[in-house]
């Protein structure tokens, strides 16, 4: 059934007859050298991939023989590859890169998938299969690739009871009850999917951590997962609850300056590494939203992080310490807190610590300006944290292709070292010369048959991985690959569906939070609108705090006359964002409180513009529906109906957002909704 289980790894017969015959011709036989578990995975993947795509059993040989062959291996495992003289071309590709090369030897044609390491061969093999899946020419290959970022990890917010915080696609994949004995095929398929896009790490547990995962029983279960993932180059990491020494260690304190606490973490790390020699390390959320941390003992984030870093350092482990902090004291502007707490600590973290920063300073909003910490901590490697799961983006029912959103942040210019100091350059280490680099994505994966709930959620997992490997790829290229692999190469489908995808994020922004509005979702669960929320718990957990609508206007003044959060950016950026005339309109109400009659770029008043944006959002969904409806002939019934139904839900949601927000904001603006727009229901 076309239920989406295979993700983008569909190896169905190539439909283009000319391409099919060219591929069959070029791959007369398959030679995969070596005998590691990774190479066994390569052999299996290429064999099943080619059998499916070419529609015939591919001949598997030990060494290249008479026919044109596909040869995969390293110079160390294959004399043939070594003798082609490509060793020098491989050197700069490091331990994960690969080379795909068409070459002639003794008058015969060969296609090489070569790398310095077995993992490189695996990545190259997936790339090669992608070329076939997307019907590319493989006759004159000469391409090499290596990742720009070293640690490319998923963050699962999975609890030990298998619920998933902010998960909208079923329950956690990790079946703790049946582990360590039972290895579900799904774990292998999960690892395959990740390897196919270059993801090389996975944090198994929620950042709101449960210390139990660090007990012996769970370590054995985690080790079983690590064993299953290892052939695919996927390392496991765990979240470390800072108070674990008290909760499971029987100590009276978790103070990082206490020798017994340090010793406890060292012993715990020894125990973990004994079971999992290549354990990746810890991810920590500390002193944020009620989580314990070093500040409970009067210590700072670096002192906390360094203690853990010292415990895993002997094994090459790393600590990813999150900068998403907000505490129990009400700030004058929550957007400023991470910068204020972390910037002064620059230079005080151990070498194996990464500070993991969300793309924006509030919280995974449909659109945020880039986080001011990027560029601002030259002595500390900063890691990007994106959210793949759509907590604030309509959750499981909305089609929102997030690559354009990721790119918007990655391409943003921090001006840290002059023009061109993009966020991407900070996290890939080129800006401040770091070799320890990382990027994380909060996973949208669960036990749903199609993994991500919405079929198009798969595209977000896919594009996160592709951008983690190479942030210079365009959203369009990534969508193109994904659509071809996931659905079909038929242009009559590929083109319109890409159009749906590329416009979808802007559409969602329009009907939820246009013009820089943010955090006006319903309270706590964050699904649907709730701009009126004001009386819960504390000011910065309410919506009115963020939009500040009143009779004069709307928006959060983060300039000098307000919270001055804008001053956290480097001067050219601060100047631009802080200036009402220069701020990009998409961030207008993020930084400015603007009068209802203020004239925006379109020439309309702010109020009218807001009305048009919300209604554009609804129209955008209706356009997606129209396009999708016209695709019925090009796609299987099962996925067609699924997406159609979800788009119908999204249309309802969009209208709900538009009507709720406009009617609510109208109580302040006291202005009519422009005549030519559909009236709120
Ligand atoms: C958001 C989210 C929480 C999560 C937090 C975090 O606030 O709503 O569920 O725990 O981010 O990233 O730590």
TrEMBL record:
InterPro entries: A-glucoronidase_C_sf, GH, Glyco_hydro_67_aGlcAse, Glyco_hydro_67_aGlcAse_N, Glyco_hydro_67_C, Glyco_hydro_67_cat, Hex-like_dom2
Pfam families: Glyco_hydro_67C, Glyco_hydro_67M, Glyco_hydro_67N
Superkingdom of the source species: Bacteria
Keyword Hydrolase recorded: yes
Catalytic residues in the record: 289, 363, 391
Catalytic reactions of this protein: Hydrolysis of (1->2)-alpha-D-(4-O-methyl)glucuronosyl links in the main chain of hardwood xylans
Alphabetical list of SUPFAM superfamilies matching this protein: (Trans)glycosidases, beta-N-acetylhexosaminidase-like domain
Keyword DNA damage annotated: no
Residue ranges annotated for the Glycosyl hydrolase family 67 C-terminal domain, each copy included: 452-676
Record keywords, A-Z: Carbohydrate metabolism, Glycosidase, Hydrolase, Polysaccharide degradation, Signal, Xylan degradation
Gene Ontology molecular function: any one: alpha-glucuronidase activity
GO process annotations (BP): glucuronoxylan catabolic process
EC nos: 3.2.1.131
One GO cellular component term noted in the UniProt record for this chain: extracellular region
Broad class of enzyme this protein falls into: hydrolase
Location of the Alpha glucuronidase N-terminal domain: 7-128
Annotated ranges, domain Glycosyl hydrolase family 67 catalytic: 132-451
Family to which the UniProt record says this protein belongs: Belongs to the glycosyl hydrolase 67 family.
Complexes and interactors: Homodimer.
Protein name as annotated: Xylan alpha-1,2-glucuronidase
Organism: Pontibacter lucknowensis
């Amino acid at each position: 059934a076309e239920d989406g289980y295979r993700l983008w790894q569909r190896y169905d017969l190539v439909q283009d007859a000319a391409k099919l015959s060219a591929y069959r011709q070029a791959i007369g036989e398959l030679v995969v050298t070596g005998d590691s578990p990774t190479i066994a995975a390569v052999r299996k993947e290429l064999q099943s991939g080619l059998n499916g795509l070419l529609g015939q059993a591919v001949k598997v040989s030990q060494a290249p023989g008479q026919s044109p062959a596909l040869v995969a291996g390293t110079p160390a495992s294959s004399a043939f590859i070594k003798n082609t003289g490509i060793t020098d071309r491989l050197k700069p590709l490091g331990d994960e890169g690969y080379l795909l090369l068409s070459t002639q030897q003794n008058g015969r044609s060969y296609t090489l998938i070569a790398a310095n390491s077995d993992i490189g061969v695996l990545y190259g093999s997936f790339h090669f299969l992608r070329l076939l899946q997307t019907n590319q020419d493989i006759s004159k290959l000469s391409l090499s690739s290596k990742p720009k970022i070293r640690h490319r990890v998923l963050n699962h917010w999975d609890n030990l009871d298998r619920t998933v915080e902010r998960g909208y696609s079923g329950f956690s994949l990790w079946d703790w009850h049946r582990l360590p004995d039972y290895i579900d095929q799904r774990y292998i398929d999960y690892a395959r999917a990740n390897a196919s896009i270059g993801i090389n790490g996975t944090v198994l547990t929620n950042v709101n951590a449960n210390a139990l995962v660090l007990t012996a029983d769970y370590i054995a279960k985690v080790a079983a997962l690590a064993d299953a993932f290892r052939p695919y180059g996927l390392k496991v990491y765990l979240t470390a609850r800072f108070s674990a020494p008290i909760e499971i260690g029987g100590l009276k304190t978790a103070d990082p300056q206490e020798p017994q606490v340090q010793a406890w973490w060292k012993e715990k790390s020894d125990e973990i590494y004994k079971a999992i020699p290549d354990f990746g390390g810890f991810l920590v959320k500390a002193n944020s939203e009620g989580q314990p941390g070093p500040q409970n003992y009067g210590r700072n984030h670096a002192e906390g992080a360094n203690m853990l870093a010292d415990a895993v350092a002997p094994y090459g482990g790393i600590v990813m310490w999150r900068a998403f902090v907000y505490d129990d004291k009400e700030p004058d502007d929550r957007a400023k807190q991470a910068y204020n707490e972390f910037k002064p600590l620059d230079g005080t973290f151990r070498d194996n610590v990464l500070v993991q920063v969300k793309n924006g300073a509030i919280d995974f909003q449909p659109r945020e300006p880039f986080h001011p910490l990027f560029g601002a901590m030259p002595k500390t490697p900063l890691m990007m944290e994106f959210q793949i799961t759509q907590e604030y983006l309509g959750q499981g029912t909305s089609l929102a292709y997030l690559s354009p959103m990721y790119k918007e942040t990655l391409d943003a210019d921090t001006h840290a070292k002059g023009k061109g100091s993009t966020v991407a350059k900070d996290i890939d280490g080129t800006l401040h010369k770091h070799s320890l680099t990382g990027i994380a994505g909060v996973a949208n994966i669960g036990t749903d048959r199609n993994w991500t709930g919405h079929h198009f959620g798969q595209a977000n997992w896919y594009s996160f991985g592709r951008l983690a490997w190479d942030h210079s790829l365009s959203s369009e290229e990534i969508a193109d690959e994904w659509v071809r692999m996931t659905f079909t190469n038929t242009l009559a489908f590929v083109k319109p569906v890409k159009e749906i995808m590329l416009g979808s994020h802007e559409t969602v922004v329009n009907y939820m939070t246009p013009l820089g509005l943010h955090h006006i979702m319903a309270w706590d669960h964050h699904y649907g609108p709730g701009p009126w929320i004001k009386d819960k718990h504390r000011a910065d957990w309410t919506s009115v705090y963020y939009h500040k609508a009143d009779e004069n206007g709307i928006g959060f003044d983060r300039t000098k006359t307000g919270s001055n959060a804008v001053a956290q950016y480097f001067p050219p950026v601060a100047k631009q964002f802080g200036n009402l005339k220069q701020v990009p309109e998409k961030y207008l109400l993020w930084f400015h409180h603007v009068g209802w009659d203020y004239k925006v770029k379109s020439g309309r008043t702010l109020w009218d513009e807001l009305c048009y944006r919300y209604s554009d959002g609804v129209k955008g969904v209706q356009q997606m529906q129209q396009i999708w409806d016209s695709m019925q002939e090009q796609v299987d019934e099962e996925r067609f109906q699924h997406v159609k139904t979800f788009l119908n839900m999204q249309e309802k949601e969009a209208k709900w957002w538009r009507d709720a927000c406009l009617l609510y904001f109208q109580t302040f603006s006291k202005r009519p909704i422009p005549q030519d727009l559909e009236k709120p229901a």
